[in-house]
Amino acid sequence: MTTHRSSRRTGGLAACIAAVAVVATGLSGCATASTPATELTREKSPLFAILGPLSGPTGDDGRRELERKVENLIAKCMTDQGFEYTPTDNSAAAPAEDDGESRESEDWISKNGYGITLGEKDGAAADPNEDYVASLSDTQQAAYYEALHGSVAETEEGATNASKPFDPKTAGCWNTAYREANGGKGDFWEDKKYAQLLESMSELTTKAEKQPAVKAATATWASCMADAGFSTMKKKSDALELASQKHGDLYNATDGEVNSAESVDPSKADLAKFREWEIDIALADFRCDKKSDLTQVALKAQFELEEKFIADHREELDQLVDAYGNRK
Description:
By secondary structure, the chain is mostly helical. It is built from 14 helices and no strands. Helix content is 58%, strand content 0%. The longest helix is centred in the C-terminal third of the chain and has 31 residues, at 294-324.
């Protein structure tokens, strides 16, 4: 069986760019809920109102154009290093039913779960480069992925040392291309000038979770999830994290051999089994959230903390946006 390491299996550049400011505040999810105006939504976050420009190009067209630019630059970079690379159009893979406005409705979730496998083909590779990579020897594959993603040591160190200066010689074609397409600017979280600010922002969600009202709603949600058969869930993020982990495990499994650098495409049966389970846990999550009112209670607590944070750090936040934001 041919094994390979996926170049970028989940999410896609556009989705990650669109959500970056939300992630910075500790609020999760790329999806947009269709909710009445009286309900709180992630998009009403006081911090998001300020940090929105950090999310890159606005609108689907802007994000897709950036992704196309990145993919073409990757192709040139990989060709220069002696490899073939076909630009991937992730936007073309998005199914029509993924309209972005109904993702948090019960009807949508009952068909798609969290949407983790949207755009994937049953047991088939969606990446146009997979056949080429599979034709390479093990040594050539290792060189291919090092050229694409950078050295293993660089990748592992980057996860723990975000302030390390960018080095195009070891960064890999994907990171180099993204930086070039982004006007030469790196990611704001790599700038140690703002490290303390960003760390303080990331703590807001933890602080919100400790508020009495949020703890009570979380307990109700967890009890409801246990009744639905998911007894290991302690907080809301546990459900999506477990689903993401199980999805990753589908691709990281290799004929009994443990090798984090290799993966195989799951069978149609395994994907179908995962999707059925994903829908079950996502629906339970949705229904238990409605029963406990957890999202509304948590957002209220979060937004109150954000407003205080803004009052204390407005000058630094403005400097961050001026340095890395896209105001177009």
